Amino acid sequence: MILLTGVTGKTGGETAKQLLEKGASLRALVRDAAKAADLKAAGVELVVGDIADAKVVSRALEGVDKAFLTLPNGEQQQANEKQFTDLAVAAGTDHLVKMSSMEAVPTAKTPIPQGHWAVEEYIRASGLDWTMVKPNFFMQNLLASAGSIKEKRKFFLPMGDGTTGMADIRDIGAVCAEVLTGEGHAGQSYEITGPEILSFYDVADQFSEVLGEQVEYVAMPMDQFRERMTGILAPWHLNAVCELFREIDEIGLDQTTDTFRALLGRKPTSLRRFIEDHLALFK
Which domains, ranges and CATH numbers included, belong to the chain? Predict the structure, then answer.
């Protein structure tokens, strides 16, 4: 039995989908059963409750061999993930797979990567078999700009001249499904990227080529982005996202890895393919 968290989110949902395609026996811890109705209909056992509730988590972990831990970035994330780790140890879970980040390193300067690194270290010291899945910037983040691309042929982000090796969440889900069902992944940290390093000006160029119309990337000042997102994101989360985006602007994530090909035996999804697959949203 595999226990999943985060199945009503993009990454957790994609992981659940690909595990179902593999015929895996799944249980999911969810706060809102209605949001996971499709998964329940597909045969996923649901445990309903809050990840912060130790009794609920313990019940979800009963009889579980492997657990997948992916939580939304937030002020309580680190505490909840550490508690989950302790409860997995107590339940006799064999293997814990954590969704982390490529930016999560000992020298991380911003809150989200710092939190991921702290939990990674906690899991490594727990005695559990573990695997860290550490992706780069998600291509699916661009879907939030679909409206402005469709209507104005522009998208606005505070990334400046920053670069990323952005990855498709479908590829991340494939890696997670492989790690949770395959062998030989214990003790591994898998850094997952797309096939190319891109600035957001490069992203605009690729949108222009696929859509057949000029698309412009507008480097939004961070203060303007913060003002726009105030009230949408909680204060801690907004500050953490701004710090992360500022780091992308100033340092960049200019690295690609061959990990996806090594694990799955195929090339990772290109940005062009991602745009083509979601064309109806942008055109």
Answer: 2-135+169-192+257-264 (3.40.50.720)
Q: What percent of the chain has pLDDT over 90?
A: 83
Phi, psi angle pair for 4, to nearest 5°: -115, 140
Contact between residue 266 and residue 134 where contact means Cβ atoms under 8 Å apart: no
183: phi > 0 → left, psi -120 to 50 → alpha, else beta; which? beta
Look at strands 129-135 and 45-48 and give their pairing: unpaired
The 3-state secondary structure of the chain, one letter per residue: CEEECCCCCHHHHHHHHHHHHCCCCEEEEECCHHHHHHHHHCCCEEEECCCCCHHHHHHHHCCCCEEEECCCCCCCHHHHHHHHHHHHHHHCCCEEEEECCCCCCCCCCCHHHHHHHHHHHHHHCCCCEEEEEEECCEHHHHHHHHHHHHHHCEEEECCCCCEECCECHHHHHHHHHHHHHCCCCCCEEEEECCCCCEEHHHHHHHHHHHHCCCCEEEECCHHHHHHHHECCECHHHHHHHHHHHHHHHHCCCCCCCCHHHHHHCCCCCCHHHHHHHCHHHHC
Residues 185-206: pLDDT tens digits?
999 999 999 999 999 999 999 9
Q: Residue 109: what pLDDT? A: 85
